[in-house]
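Section 5.1 Outputs to date
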Amino acid sequence: MSLERLSATDATWLSLESPDMPMHVAYLMEFSCPDGHAEQFVLRWLAAHSGPVPAARPWNLVPVAGRLAGALALVREVEEIDPAHHVRHWHLPEGADRDDLTRLATRIHTTQLDLRRPPWELHFVTGAAPDRFAVLLKAHHSLVDGVSLVRVVAESLTTDSARRDTAPFFTVGPAAAPPRRSPVAAVRGFLAVLLGVLLAAWDAVRRVLGLPATGQHTYRQPPSILDGPITGARGLALRRYDLAEFKAVAKASGCTVNDLLLYLVSTALRDWLGAHGELPAATLTTGVPTDLREGDDQRAGTRAGLMFTALGTDLADPAERLAAVKTAIDGAKRQFAALAPEAVIGYGLATTIPWILGLRAGRTRTAASHPMGISNLPGPRRPLYWDGARLTSMYPISLLMHGNSLNVTCTGYDGALYLGILTAADRLPPVEEFAAALDRALDGAERPVAS
């Protein structure tokens, strides 16, 4: 039996797993069958993959049970996986709409993965229409992050609509195990992590002294409804925006697509929380993941840093709010720009460790470093196919934690921007109200920024 330790970041995701905080990420994807027989497509696939098969990394990694193994974050490889333990088939009634699919996806996403087996699942959904089916792929965050999961999707499908021999993603995997680093590189990486830890400590000192942020807005959010413990109840809303139009609005506003996304969330928050009398007087903040993979690094697992930025939710004027959003995120980027990836990772780990240790000790009211997450994941630009079935949409779905009860993640695919909005359903106002506020924010974005 081959044993190995997870990275510190991936070990954190594994250690936080609980019914209130399932630590998995997912993609909800819809496919269109050219022959109009979606049910037969799925049944054929299930029949062809009904027995144990060899699996590739990371889909063959199982957490090792036991207190010591858990403390060491040990995982072991298995030679084969049984699809019966990982693949499910759901049926919606004929004529079911997107709301029905979203409700089912929410139900699936709130259920914990089985850590006695490689922690991932593939859910097929048929019945709503004869020519369409949906797939929800969810995997534990200790195996993949959002970037590596979308890469798995892209690499397991094809741009050739005539191809009919697509291999299952769990037999291919995103990459082999990471190569061992030389002693010199290992020391250099350790020193970079240490630098990140020291920078985080200095920012903490500045915060205690009441000095302004140097770039990262950590633990600087006001008290709000986003704080505190959550349960396993989730609200999920999905949105699709035309990417060309989104880019046009960003260009007219003099900002990037990422800047515009932050601005729209900020504007929607003002609308959504304000309508319920829950908008704080001071600005809310957010965590913004940034991919740290270099060159052809195709490893799974988490290889991301976390920027902490202010959203300008305290500013009523749209132009001032956008300017504040841009200033804050540009400052966060500048602080990390000169750092090695390991230093950025070290900063994030040191910053969040008080929060993480509190959660691991069962203190669900421990102050969070940021009350929400906003992420923009790069996705495939060209249409993708699965044995002739065209991928028509791909919605990312992230995770929540105590003190971090809202997440907005988007992925670009084939000319569109797909958003998955996840909320703590029993703590926050209805998620569809936030999604509607986001729609209104985009509709009005060009006018206020150009003024």
